[in-house]
C-alpha cells in the first residue's frame, strides 16, 4: 500500500503549486479529493461484498451441518419410535383379552394425575375463558383501595361531583 508521510505530502504540494499555479490549485485539489473519496468508497464496497460472500459461504456450511444433524435426529427418533411401537404391539398381543377395564397402576403418590394401564391419558382441554372480559394486570380491588380512577369523567361532571353540598343536600 502507498505510505505517504508529512514530508512527502509537503513535497507533492510544493511541486503541484509550481506546476499548476496558485489560481487553479484549489479546484484541482477539490477534484483530486472527490476522486480519492470515490476510490475509497469503491474499495470499501468491494471489501464489504467479499465479506458478505465469505459469511454467506459460512452460513451455507452451517445450514448443511444443521440439516444433517436434524436428519440424524429424525432418523434416530423414528427408529426408536418404531422399536417401541413394535415392543408395545408384541406386549399387547400377549396380554390376552382386550375387553378388560382399565386398571390403576402404581405411581408416585404425590402425582395427582391418574394413570391407567393400557389406556391413553385424556386429551388436553384448554380452560374456558370469556374473551369479552378484559383482564388487567392490576386487580380492580387494589385500584379501588388506592384511589386509582378507573372510569373517565368529564371536567363538568367532576366539578359537580365534588362541589360542596348545602345543609339540604343541594349544591351551593
From TrEMBL:
InterPro entries: TatA/B/E, TatB
Signal peptide: none
Chain positions covered by the region annotation Disordered: 107-130
GO cellular component: TAT protein transport complex
Localization, UniProt: Cell membrane; Membrane
Membrane topology reported for the UniProt record: Single-pass membrane protein
One Gene Ontology MF term: protein transmembrane transporter activity
Main location: membrane
Record's keyword terms, sorted: Cell inner membrane, Cell membrane, Membrane, Protein transport, Translocation, Transmembrane, Transmembrane helix, Transport
One GO term (biological process): protein transport by the Tat complex
Assembly, per entry: The Tat system comprises two distinct complexes: a TatABC complex, containing multiple copies of TatA, TatB and TatC subunits, and a separate TatA complex, containing only TatA subunits. Substrates initially bind to the TatABC complex, which probably triggers association of the separate TatA complex to form the active translocon.
Family recorded in the similarity comment: Belongs to the TatB family.
Function: Part of the twin-arginine translocation (Tat) system that transports large folded proteins containing a characteristic twin-arginine motif in their signal peptide across membranes. Together with TatC, TatB is part of a receptor directly interacting with Tat signal peptides. TatB may form an oligomeric binding site that transiently accommodates folded Tat precursor proteins before their translocation.
HAMAP family: TatB (MF_00237)
Protein name, entry field: Sec-independent protein translocase protein TatB
Gene source species: Scleromatobacter humisilvae
Amino acid at each position: 500500500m502507498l505510505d505517504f508521510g508529512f514530508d512527502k505530502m509537503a513535497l507533492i504540494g510544493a511541486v503541484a503549486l509550481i506546476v499548476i499555479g496558485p489560481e487553479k490549485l484549489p479546484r484541482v485539489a477539490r477534484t483530486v479529493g472527490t476522486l480519492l473519496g470515490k476510490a475509497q468508497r469503491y474499495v470499501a464496497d468491494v471489501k464489504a461484498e467479499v465479506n458478505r460472500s465469505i459469511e454467506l459461504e459460512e452460513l451455507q456450511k452451517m445450514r448443511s451441518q444443521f440439516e444433517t444433524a436434524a436428519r440424524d435426529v429424525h432418523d434416530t427418533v423414528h427408529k426408536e419410535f418404531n422399536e417401541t411401537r413394535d415392543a408395545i404391539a408384541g406386549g399387547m398381543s400377549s396380554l390376552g383379552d382386550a375387553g378388560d377395564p382399565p386398571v390403576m397402576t402404581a405411581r408416585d403418590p404425590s402425582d395427582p394425575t391418574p394413570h391407567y394401564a393400557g389406556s391413553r391419558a385424556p386429551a388436553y382441554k384448554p380452560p374456558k375463558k370469556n374473551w369479552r372480559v378484559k383482564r388487567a394486570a392490576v386487580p380492580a380491588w387494589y385500584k379501588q383501595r388506592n384511589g386509582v380512577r378507573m372510569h373517565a369523567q368529564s371536567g363538568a361532571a367532576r366539578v359537580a361531583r365534588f362541589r360542596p353540598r348545602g345543609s339540604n343536600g343541594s349544591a351551593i
